[in-house]
């Protein structure tokens, strides 16, 4: 088998080198244009003088998305592609050339990886168009949620600075309800609230919420405005020399407009995810598992892709929700942290879904209880153990193409309510145990 080491570049042509079946270089490195014509020229050059019984493979790093068009092109021509971890390539480069780095060295290092670590080299799996779209949409939704959360935290800080933090949530039920957002936009300045008076404020709230009984809320907001004015105004003055509430109101309005836009985009992305997921059998199978709901199903199903490319060991190594190993001679260290090798989104939703599943699925609930009570783990460690088992079940239902059936610890089919009752009766972690696991020095 001949090997092409391809060091991808974003702005410039990539660098490539060809090695024979014994790892010896065939010629020097050369530039490659990432077009169909350029890749065809690469294949022709790599195949010069190649016997009929030899095949071709390409070794690349996952540089941005530059690897995907090349992998698609090569797969259509039955050329095996491999993506290697950037950390592994960097470590090998330091071994060969500790004090030097160049595209030429990088290509030579990539070619050597199959001969150094052939067992750790896996063929690249190309997801289907549906899986690729779901992955990208789920990542986009996650970014939008993170950005919206950051803005909400900033608005909480502004509310605390302006003195409204303790009253907005209690007055409107939620600091980010439509009524609270309208009040933040119109009456963030406490002097405006004082000028409006309780009667005017009540009239405003009736129009805003559609409820007639707004007297107590109006009084609460009015008293809060007086307290804010008293806090920020010097004695015998009616102004705030050190805090410009007008500009504070402007900043809050900008943040809220940004938040509204992000939430609008979230709904658009969510609708696209739902549209693609409707006809997906793998998403349906994933959602049948207790704990994996509407949000987690598309994430986990799209990232797993073809389940038959895994067995249980390779699947656990792929998602990374397992402890690492540290063994030397006759010693085997315990309590090693997780490998965290897999996609971050898979690990996040596996954890969140497992935290729900342990409260409804008796088999998962027993694992959580055993980790907490018998093995001395704290909550996060116990949920991670549940997540590993939940992902094992996900792989099983995807491979067998069979919806998951909730069962008790004896294997008998049960309803959701029965599962919840079993956990509450048998697998509730005592408060004293939970408290001791939280303490740093119990």
Would you count the extended β strands for me?
A: 7
Structural class: alpha/beta
Tally of discrete structural domains: 3
Largest sheet: 5 strands, mixed
What portion of residues is helical?
55-70%
Q: How do the strands of the widest beta sheet line up side by side? A: 3-2-1-4-5
The rough form would be described as globular
Distance between the termini: 59 Å
Radius of gyration from the CA trace? 29 Å
Tally of individual helices: 18
Please indicate the percent range of residues in DSSP E strands (runs of 2 or more): 5-15%
Low confidence ranges: none
Average pLDDT score: 91
Compressed to H and E, one letter per element, the order equals: EEEHEHEHHHHHHHHHHHEEHHHHH
Write the layout of secondary structure elements.
Layout: E1 2-7, E2 14-19, E3 30-32, H1 36-46, E4 56-60, H2 67-76, E5 80-83, H3 86-96, H4 103-116, H5 129-162, H6 165-172, H7 178-186, H8 190-209, H9 215-232, H10 245-278, H11 281-287, H12 296-304, H13 312-319, E6 327-328, E7 331-332, H14 344-357, H15 362-373, H16 379-400, H17 416-426, H18 431-438
Parallel strand pairs: 1-4, 4-5
Antiparallel strand pairs: 1-2, 2-3, 6-7
